[in-house]
Amino acid sequence: MKTKQKKLLGIYKFIVFFLLIAFVVSCSFILFLHFLDFSTEEIKSAAPVTFGNVVFLTLLFWILDTVRMHLVQDKPVKSIREGLEKITSGDFKTRIAPVSQVSGLAEYNEIIQYINKMTEELSGVETLRTDFVSNVSHEMKTPLAVIQNYAQLLQQTDISEQERMEYASAIMNASQRLSELIMNILKLNKLENQQIYPDRKSYNLSEQLCECILDFENIWEEKQIEIQTDIQEDVIIQSDADLLSLVWHNLLSNAMKFTEAGGTVSVSLRTEQNNAVISVADTGCGISPETGKHIFDKFYQGDTSHAEKGNGLGLALVRRIIDITNSEISVQSEIGKGSVFTVRLRREENSHE
Fold it and tell me: Where in the chain is the domain with CATH 3.30.565.10?
């Protein structure tokens, strides 16, 4: 079908060129003959030659135009079309090569540049999607396998009451981990895929931090973790209290998880000019510099020996909330000495302590 259309287009162009050249030649001859005296016989004998010249010139211009169109339009359009066909089929590694810098091709190279940039972004998104699905599947398999194995053990009739309680506790822990994973996935998905507008209201950040710390009272008492606080009183900020509550809970949860029994977790809050600065420090295992570059990536767990303590979504959730609220977060850590996460929140000029 496309070949037939090209042939018809070629014939159409030839006819247009023929009529145009015939018109120009005819006008030229009429003006030429108007000032010269030629006999009718001489004009008749020259007519076939003139017609042949018209056909020759038409064919020449048609060939030149066809070659020009092939170089200037058909070749780059074909290259772009073939590249887009590969991209639409899911091959995001495809890159369209720029065409030669001939006059009139700069616009095509600009289009190709944007297509390649779009493909690069799509490639990154596809990689993240694939990794996300793969990691979700992997993270879900572990607690599900634990639940299944211990459920089978509970079906045995010759187990002691102590063993039964241990198996039930293992099932409870695995189900809680699975529930936490699903909840974090849902929260992160909501924050990443919906247009979130923070519900900015004035509230007491000092009180919020104290309440969040108290939520982990059972954990710090069980692990005999010392809690040190240096929280400036009545620090008022204008932000989304619900979103920031998720940040404090995730940072404190990580601090409690990775701090060994008898360790220390410190929380501080101070004001610096128009900022509220919150620090959550622990005496846990610490983070290597390489791990520190990726800790806010989804499912990233640099220390595989502690993989059972988290699912790699908490800090990704924190990073997203920090971005949404136009805040800043940084981490300082040293292997074997613990980590310090610092959040800087912008306060309104009319905020007061």
Answer: 201-346
* 3-class secondary-structure state, position 302: coil
pLDDT digits (tens, 9 = 90+) for 117-138: 888 777 766 665 665 565 566 5
Class of domain 132-193: mainly alpha
The answer to whether residues 293 and 301 touch, using CB atoms and an 8 Å cutoff, is: no
Domain(s) labelled CATH 1.10.287.130 in the chain stretch across: 132-193
Q: Going edge to edge, which strands form the sheet with 226-231?
A: 226-231, 264-272, 275-282, 338-346, 328-334
Per-residue model confidence (pLDDT) at position 347: 79
Q: Residue 189: beta bridge partners?
A: none
Please check whether residue 204 is in contact with residue 235, taking contact to mean a CB–CB distance below 8 angstroms.
Answer: yes
**What is the CATH number assigned to the segment(s) 201-346?**
3.30.565.10
344 CB burial (10 A radius; 0-12, 13-18, 19+): middle
CA 115/CA 222 separation, integer angstroms:
57
Handedness of CA 114, 117, 122, 123 (dihedral sign): positive
- pLDDT digit string, tens, across residues 333-342: 888 888 999 9
How confident is the model over 19-36, as pLDDT tens digits? 777 777 676 666 555 555
Q: Which pTM does this prediction carry?
A: 0.51
Stated as kind and residue range, the H or E segment containing 46 is helix 40-69
